[in-house]
Write a structure and sequence with these properties.
This protein is an all-beta fold and 164 residues long. Strands 1, 4, 5, 7, 8 and 10 form a 6-stranded antiparallel beta sheet that branches. A 5-stranded antiparallel beta sheet has the order 2-3-11-6-9, with no helix packed on it. The protein has no helices and 11 strands. The chain has a single domain, classed as Jelly Rolls.
């Protein structure tokens, strides 16, 4: 006998490990940037199709600039998936790059992993696989890099970080 629809239990939705991934609070809740004039909160409907109102606008300057996620506790024996919506509206050269910074239990940076660079115009989800590089990794942070002198104007939104 097959179970009826009333007896089927859906698994719980995975928990997003990063705070404010939809940027509804702007660049807050642990998100930071080293370029407050070039990396700004945007509420002009440039975000992901599922939540378009709020996003973060990335505009290249003469140097590389960065958007940093809050540090996320990680288990060095587990694997993780990250997905971010990226919409590149203008680009002359370079890329928007995704990098994972890794920290020890005391919050000291110990290593990092370059994941991918995107240089194609248009909007799409960028998906990354992440495995901590050593048993010393206790937390990690996503770093979105806008290459300097690239002419990039882009929007990032809907950052999702899940344990597999």
């Amino acid at each position: 006998m097959f179970p009826t629809s009333e007896s089927v239990v859906e698994p719980p939705a995975p928990t997003n490990l990063v705070a404010n991934g939809k940027f509804d609070d702007g660049i807050a809740d642990g998100w930071t940037t080293d370029s407050p004039s070039g990396i700004t909160a945007d509420n002009g409907n440039n975000g992901s199709p599922s939540n378009p109102v709020n996003s973060v606008k990335l505009v290249a300057s003469t140097n590389n600039t960065h958007l940093f996620s809050p540090k996320t506790s990680v288990d060095p024996t587990k694997q993780y998936s990250l997905t971010t919506y990226l919409n590149i509206k203008a680009i002359a050269s370079g890329e928007v790059a995704f990098y994972i910074d890794e920290y020890d239990k005391n919050g000291n940076w110990i290593s990092g992993q370059y994941k991918i660079g995107v240089s194609a115009l248009g909007g799409k989800d960028v998906t990354l696989a992440y495995t901590p590089s050593s048993a010393n990794v206790a937390s990690a942070s996503l770093q979105v890099i806008v290459v300097g002198n690239s002419g990039i104007t882009a929007y990032v939104d809907d950052v999702r970080w899940y344990q597999n």
